[in-house]
Prior knowledge:
Strand content: 25-35%
Distance between the termini: 36 Å
Mean pLDDT: 91
Amino acid sequence: xxxxxxxxxxxxxxxxxxxxxxxxxxxxxxxxxxxxxxxxxxxxxxxxxxxxxxxxxxxxxxxxxxxxxxxxxxxxxxxxxxxxxxxxxxxxxxxxxxxxxxxxxxxxxxxxxxxxxxxxxxxxxxxxxxxxxxxxxxxxxxxxxxxxxxxxxxxxxxxxxxxxxxxxxxxxxxxxxxxxxxxxxxxxxxxxxxxxxxxxxxxxxxxxxxxxxxxxxxxxxxxxxxxxxxxxxxxxxxxxxxxxxxxxxxxxxxxxxxxxxxxxxxxxxxxxxxxxxxxxxxxxxxxxxxxxxxxxxxxxxxxxxxxxxxxxxxxxxxxxxxxxxxxxxxxxxxxxxxxxxxxxxxxxxxxxxxxxxxxxxxxxxxxxxxxxxxxxxxxxxxxxxxxxxxxxxxxx
Length: 396
């Protein structure tokens, strides 16, 4: 199964099995001054006025992939939680991951679990959560089912419980601010979008796949006008020999890591990524890579009697654009999107611990001359919890 080493490297090995005494020992090593007690017959660890209920993080089991892990939450934890809540005491549901010299603690928000009626329920965690904690110290996210979890390297756990750990992920917060003005639920027609881009002289205004280029236009405009380009920069024109990616995430050095901006239909099972060899080289150089993925509902011109694509082609001609093949009112009629509604975004991180699982080969076929195209990758949405950094959505 997937295991995480001291520097965040991926190791394929069996789970380490901890005895009850060893699990308590791992907790006590990370929390000097903690004490062991029993409440309602359940052993707990008390620290800083809080109750910690803990279980070991282990592989979910066959037939699940090796990155899927969980703890079991017994019904008696719910009884302890409710008794403590009545006395105004905070109770933590904590997963203990331990492998070699690595100890990571996963604090699961108990809210969703205490409402379940089953005798036992599982709280899930992915390899990427453990990687992020081990390399960054602290990592927070909400999974695809709405459960919130915080993963912490052992040296940060005590500070976290004492409230001495602030918000992290400044790069993700940039997109949180952008979403406040972009994820509005607007039904965006093709003509409205391309006319906005044309008025701003955006280079890709005339492209048929306008939704993705409109996203680029809006992100670039936000970053420059808000001043957030000091943290995240959109690069439209790439220099020869550089990595061909949209986003530069800045740190104490000029470049912390790179990323790419993608638009995809919410009905799609995956989104096309980039050249596989190039991406692997980029991850090896910077340690991580972010896909910033915006998903949209889609309306197609072919379902509207082709009127939207005819209007689009006529508008392009009216502003002086003529394709190489000449004017054709039905150009791109089969695929043309008449409108979209952006409803969801995700930041997905590719790193050394999940590269092999997160991405599937994207079959591109052959070039016009018959030569095979370079292998690209496909962002596989079914594995999303193993590379999800941040997510936000509106009602669909």
